[in-house]
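Escalated from tier 1: dinuclear copper ion holo job.
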Amino acid sequence: MLFIGGAAILLAVVGLAAWAVWGPQERRGWLAGSSTVWAGGVLFPAIVLAALLAYSVTLPARSGAGPPVRIEVVGERWWWRVRYLDDTGTVIHASANELHLPAGRPVELTLTTADVIHSLWLPTLAGKLDMTPGHVNSLRLLPAQAGIFRGQCAEYCGGAHALMAFYAQVHPAAEFDAWLAARRQPRAEPGDVVLRRGYGLFQSSGCGACHTVRGTPANGEFGPDLSDVGGRLSLGAGILPNNADTLAGWIVDARDIKPGIAMPPFPIFSGDELHALAAYLESLK
Ligand code: CUA
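Tier 2 regenerated the structure:
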């Protein structure tokens, strides 16, 4: 709507300018009249801007029916903490670096930061909005159609700012409900011997001091929640494909991939151990 309106106004202004330059002398005198200047320079912009203001402030009220899906996103250096909330504000699923959204249903993102100013920008779905220390900002959006959309931190937040991206996956509404419900089911035991070995290494190597895996003793809050890490579209906040190989590389030396992050290098595992650990993480969906 803004593009069409802006294009129409631009064409009108260019047309008037051309008229002023090349129009017949006797007919273009009216352009210089004070009533033309008042109408075109004051009245017209005032009406257009007032209409745009009314359009934008009433946008939330018109963005879909029903209560919004509420998701809390916290900016961290340099990743995104994501929590899905129910109507009472209780966390029903915790994740990181990825948003799952329902198509055709309003979504309210509550934006805060754990450290410096970040800015959540999902250009296909909404404008950017800062995450400011000491403030809670709210971003309403209405995803129109299913798909995968890339987002990015849009405010310089230190060394790895450019590597602070994410994906938003918009599901058909029923599929979103099923996705969220599945995240709340009890976790199955690791299925085979490799996964069990990976699970044992994860628990015995101290990973759980910083990371949570729902349904296990790992309940660290410092780093990203890994309960569904294997199901995410990317690794390292939108910077790597997510598979057993990149997971293994990340464990060995994440700072080589993303300098300055809190995740320390773990060059302590043998090849077999690394394989088991990565396979276990990849199995977490
Ligand atoms: Cu976070 Cu830039």
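DSSP finds seven helices and twelve strands in the chain.
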